[in-house]
Amino acid sequence: MKELNQIIARLKPLNGEKIAKGKAICDQLAKPLGALGKMETIYARLYAMFEGNITLSKKVVMVYVADNGIVAEGISANPQETTFIVAQNILKGKTGLCAISQHVGSDVCLVDIGCKKDVGEPSKEKVRYGTRNMLHEPALTKEEGEQAILLGYRKTVELIHQGYTLFGTGEMGIGNTTTSAAVIAAILGLKANQVTGYGAGLTQDMKAHKTQIIQQCLHQHAPYKDSFDVAIKLGGLDLLGMVGTYLACAEYGLPCVIDGLISIAGLLIAERLAPAVLDYCFASHLSTEPAYALVCEDLGLDPMLAMDMRLGEGSGCPLAFFLMENACYTIEHMPTFSEGQLNKEDYIDIRNRTE
């Protein structure tokens, strides 16, 4: 864990004074104070990260592909082969994520971190061909878990060095709503029935079975030392790859957007390891999975959108990219009070009103 601990030690929280400068810029615009809502809070945080020179034109969604051994317990309506098929479609640019990304000018980087079949050319970096069945044994070893985080970290750093400044996290892996729900329940101290959703599409009976399997796994592997221990016992390789992306973005002071349940489970792991990562992350949309809102509440996240989406792949990220770019353009091109010949004193600041 030496290299991982060294990375974590280098992370620093976002500078509060720089955030305040970003907010001050918003407060000088010709509008009621706070009238642009989340656009202003997004801008202020980006202003702090880029020290005023916000550059978001080169953006990418990191899609981590991994299979999960727990699929053997019948927790998904989709066959495991779906992971490989959809991953291949992503490489061809023929999925929902790809369509949204193409429209907003975002790239997609697919990382085969643990698919049971090689996606594209065989990779020497792949951690393993799917996780073990967590109902019977820990999903990963400690060494495999660290390897997965470092793979995500290095892949992200490579892209940073290529000039990418805006990142998103996505995934493809049948069974990963089960692993994510289990991880969230273990870290937050919840029961399986509080976190289990319908995933890609389950009947009521299948959801009940999925809930039971998750509860059995939670009980079998307890107690848990920390979030990393939870992740290797219950989690997936995709979750840990995302942890690496969050760490890299925090180290380099760059924004990272999370998608749905799997992305936020990865963020929960990362935040427990290194709280500073949260300063650099943005929630794109409110997933329909019940555990998503629970993690948002725990981490204090406020998603930009509520669109009843549950596609996965990272599809919420390019939508958020568009909103973030629009927020910056709008704020940087609006007139100030003086330019708009308005008096700031005529406006009442209602942002902190409690009544």
From TrEMBL:
Catalytic activity: 5,6-dimethylbenzimidazole + nicotinate beta-D-ribonucleotide = alpha-ribazole 5'-phosphate + nicotinate + H(+)
Entry-linked InterPro entries: Nict_dMeBzImd_PRibTrfase, Nict_dMeBzImd_PRibTrfase_bact, Nict_dMeBzImd_PRibTrfase_N, Nict_dMeBzImd_PRibTrfase_sf
Superkingdom of the source species: Bacteria
Entries under Gene3D superfamilies matching the protein: 1.10.1610.10, 3.40.50.10210
EC number: 2.4.2.21
GO biological process terms on file: cobalamin biosynthetic process
Class of the enzyme per the UniProt entry, highest EC level: transferase
A GO MF label: nicotinate-nucleotide-dimethylbenzimidazole phosphoribosyltransferase activity
Claim: Glycosyltransferase is one of the keywords in the record: yes
Pathway in which this enzyme or protein is active: Nucleoside biosynthesis; alpha-ribazole biosynthesis; alpha-ribazole from 5,6-dimethylbenzimidazole: step 1/2
UniProt keyword list: Cobalamin biosynthesis, Glycosyltransferase, Transferase
Record NCBIfam families: cobT_DBIPRT (TIGR03160), PRK00105.1 (NF000996)
Annotated PANTHER family: NICOTINATE-NUCLEOTIDE--DIMETHYLBENZIMIDAZOLE PHOSPHORIBOSYLTRANSFERASE
Family: Belongs to the CobT family.
Functional summary from the UniProt entry: Catalyzes the synthesis of alpha-ribazole-5'-phosphate from nicotinate mononucleotide (NAMN) and 5,6-dimethylbenzimidazole (DMB).
Protein name: Nicotinate-nucleotide--dimethylbenzimidazole phosphoribosyltransferase
